[in-house]
Amino acid sequence: MQKQTLAIRTQMKRSAYREHSAPIFMTSSFVFDSAEHARALFVEEVDGDIYTRYSNPNLTELIDKMVQLENAEAGLTFSSGMAAIYAAVAGLLRAGDHIVASRSLFGATYKLLTDILPRWHITTTFVDADQHEQWRAAIQPNTKILFAETPSNPGLDLIDLEYVNSLKENRELVLLVDNCFATPIVQTPIDWGADLVTHSTTKFIDGQGRTIGGILVGRSDLIDEIKIFARQTGPCMSPFDAWLLSKSLETLALRMEKHCANAWELATHFEGHPELVQVKYPFLASHPHVALAKKQMRMGGGLVTFEVKGGRDRAMRFIDAVELASISSNLGDTRTIITHPATTTHSKMTEEERLRVGITPGSIRISVGLEDIADVIQDFDMALQRSK
Ligand SMILES: Cc1ncc(COP(=O)(O)O)c(C=O)c1O
Question: With respect to CATH, is domain 252-386 assigned 3.40.50.720?
Answer without folding.
Answer: no
